[in-house]
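Q: Here's a chain of 432 amino acids. Please give me its 3D structure as tokens.
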Amino acid sequence: MRYFRFFPVLLWLTPAIHAASSLPPAPDTSSAYYRNLETFAQAYYYLNKLYVDPAKVAPQSLIENAIGGMTAKLDPHTVILPQKEFEQLTIDTQGKFGGVGINVSQENKKLIIISPIEDSPAMKAGIQPRDEIIAIEGISLTKLDPDQAVDMMRGVPGSILRLTIQRKNQKAPLEFRLKREIIQVRSVHTHFLSPTIPYVKIDTFQEHTDVDLPAVLEPLRNRLEGLVLDLRDNPGGLLKAAVSVADLFIESGLILSTVGRDPDRVEREFAHKKNTFVGFPIVVLMNGGSASASEIVAGALQDHGRALILGTQSFGKGSVQTLVSLADGSGLKFTIARYFTPNDRSIQALGITPDILVPAKTLPDLAAKGITKEADLAYHIQSKDLSDLGAQNHIQQAMQSWSEGLRRDHQLVTAFTYLKGWEVFRKNVPRK
């Protein structure tokens, strides 16, 4: 007998998943529980044995279609996952897989390397951004679709992968033999908007997110003057990670409530004072792609008055899913609860309303258009402000160290401006 395998709770745009402690007791097979299955078994038998096109009624297809029928009208996040999709979701939540560590994209039917992952076998071997993969294990990419190519590059750690790569300005293709390793996909990315204001982007809430984020912030604990937390286009992930991230910035009180099948049973998650980061303002960036776990974090920080939510309305997924493996290697993802913010708000089909509505748009690159400022002119006179305000609030100067992508991000620039404004306001308003 094969036992079900339960996975952690996810809060994803597709599902939010929650840890299940044990399976429900097995039903009494002599009871009415299974009587209706006789009708199903008869239909399954006749279709499998007598349908005109046997390829369409293979046992696995019939069962998958039957389960798909059971879940089709429940809710959008309760679905049957074929084995490959189930494995991919597991990889996404764990944030690690066996491979060589390259990010790829399909461009004009070519498989182009975006970048090698830091400290991966691909980076150590010298693979570069914009390299084109033309063959895997000697098989031309013209004979493989992108999904097949990605599947072939992943594998058991320790095994060897042969890649043939065409590099720009080199006539002959390059051959690489790479030993696969466990690749850890980082979900937390950091840039510094100023020495005391970090910008942290969380892609998804994975198993290590609640460890990676405090590792970034801890060295700055006594110097933080602000934080921009970017949850835009973050579809969600693990419930536990979302609760832990919110807990980093809230000293006490409720983080969220969940209500499952029994409306009288409410489960609550509370904040803890230990290791909390306080004493500085936070701006959270959100948009329509921010869902589930992202909305839990934003909702908790908003209800506690701990952060300013800036951007556009979030996705509005207020439910929790769990994930179980089935006997054939597929997975079943199904909804087990609704969740509520600390103020008992349900964001289901509503989303988080930002405190400051800022549409997404790209700021013009003035330098690219030939537009300059006084500071760009040779031999310009240095500024000597009569007050300290100019020295305290050098927003433009700070932005010069940002990458072009960050400088042109309207929502991020607005968030940074609010943080710097708060800093000036705090320093210049007399305290009673």
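Q: Can you summarize the key feature?
A: The first helix runs from residue 37 to 50.
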